[in-house]
């Protein structure tokens, strides 16, 4: 299998953490792929018409995208422990919440990098931060007992979302007012899968 990826992407990191946690890392070759919301061609486009990463190609079927599909495939391939049936809807909802945080944070990154300074929308940026702030409050107020439970894809997604905030938006102190979540993340990011997938550039 091949994974088209960029280490800075939190969605790619989510897949990498799943590969580590399910002992499938050796079965996947990572292929660097640079993507942009304004780009029209690249390695990812050949396998995903949306031109987004991650993309997982397989010898026995069509390419898989996006990260939720890839992680579900890898999780099932490893026995399904990351998607426990008794609480599957909670797990998938938590993953969706974390993915939404990543989407908003990446949108802020793109707004700052791809638009000229005079063309950036502060209202757009504020709206994206509003989504992130509400998600952080929801995690702090309603999800801490779940986060403290057995490892699942929801926890992995939250860890990658918080890691991306530290990586690209470290001036935004998400820990302020979210002490329980910050303490959880301090422990979670010490997992070998998180340490080994931490982006450096």
From TrEMBL:
Key word Lipid biosynthesis present: no
Record protein name field: Glutathione S-transferase
Catalytic activity, EC: 2.5.1.18
Domain GST N-terminal: 1-82
This protein's record includes keyword RNA-binding: no
Key words, A-Z: Transferase
Pfam families: GST_C_2, GST_N_2
Domain of life of the organism encoding this protein: Bacteria
Gene Ontology MF annotations: glutathione transferase activity
């Amino acid at each position: 299998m091949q994974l088209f990826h960029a280490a800075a992407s939190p969605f790619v990191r989510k897949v990498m953490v799943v590969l580590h946690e399910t002992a499938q890392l050796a079965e996947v070759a990572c292929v660097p792929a640079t993507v942009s919301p304004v780009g029209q061609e690249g390695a990812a486009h050949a396998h995903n018409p949306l031109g987004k990463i991650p993309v997982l190609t397989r010898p026995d079927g069509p390419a898989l995208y996006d990260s939720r599909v890839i992680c579900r495939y890898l999780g099932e391939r490893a026995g399904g422990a990351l998607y426990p049936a008794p609480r599957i809807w909670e797990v998938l909802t938590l993953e969706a919440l974390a993915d939404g945080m990543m989407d908003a944070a990446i949108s802020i990154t793109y707004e700052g990098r791809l638009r000229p300074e005079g063309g950036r929308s502060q209202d757009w940026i504020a709206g994206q931060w509003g989504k992130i702030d509400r998600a952080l409050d929801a995690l702090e107020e309603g999800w801490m007992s779940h986060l403290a439970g057995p490892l699942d894809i929801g926890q992995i997604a939250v860890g990658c979302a918080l890691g991306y905030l530290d990586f690209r938006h470290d001036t935004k102190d998400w820990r302020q007012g979210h002490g329980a979540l910050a303490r959880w993340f301090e422990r979670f990011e010490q997992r070998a899968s998180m340490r080994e997938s931490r982006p450096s550039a």
